[in-house]
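Batch manifest line 302
LIGAND: pseudouridine-5'-monophosphate
JOB: complex structure
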Amino acid sequence: MITLSPEVATALFENRPVVALESTIITHGMPFPQNLETARRVEAELRSAGAVPATVAVLEGRLHVGMTDPELEGLARAKGVAKLSRADLAACMATGGTGATTVASTMIAAARAGIAVFATGGIGGVHQGAEQTFDISADLYELAATPVTVVAAGAKAILDLPKTLEVLETLGVPVIAYGQDSFPAFWSATSELPAPLRMNSAAEIAAAHQMRVALELPGGQLVANPIPASAEISQAEMAPVIAQATRDAAAMGISGKAVTPFLLQRIFDLTGGRSLEANIALVLNNARLAAAIATELVNSPQ
Ligand code: PSU
Ligand code: MN
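JOB STATUS: finished
ARTIFACT:
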């Protein structure tokens, strides 16, 4: 059912650090060719930090955990790839389909494969206007259910960040800001929202992960790692862009799982590609922290 790449299978067998990566960021989060370049750079970043990358996707019905470079390139070039969240994963596999995994479905694959740490850009969350649309990402429920530590740069301000934090609290998901008190807002390192928890080292985050396992708590942790200051775009600059993109989505009647990809593309256009540069920088930064957490986990066995 799961196809481990030889590199990932060997690393897991030898108890070396492995970090899972999602593929929706490749197919729906970034345009070609930057999506492929970024996917390769993130994998290289993990390797140079001593961890093995395990990019997840469904290819012709098989759930791949760890992809070869030709497989990665095929996915990055493909058009109209399905976006698979928890609800779509089994149906796609059962029908021999191909699709990219979101945070939710990548967590499922990682947990099944025995991978505890996952790096991405931003998680899905509660969308603006959710009190009307009920658009709340399955990522939040997955964080409550599946024991994987997810390193992201917080959540994008295309979402309703206060409501996203409220739902995470309700679901019992620890939200840990790395090295600062405020919850990072993706393109911006800080927000006006205090993060529920703060930790200053990978070792602390790994220890908290292990304590949850020991307590038999089912869910994972969200590590909110601020974008490096050199790559940041201020909230003041992003706010009108996000407002415009959100209005456009509403005017065009975009709904359901098309919302996030639409907004990302629109914001890319409205910022002349600067949002993408920031996005790439923060993903690389998250990969480095995820590698350090995965290293701590294998070096301090429970
Ligand atoms: N946020 C980003 N970039 C992304 C996504 C979210 O900044 O590429 C993707 C992730 O794969 C995430 C998914 O899991 O969108 C959430 O989609 P939805 O809101 O439809 O659950
Ligand atoms: Mn949604």
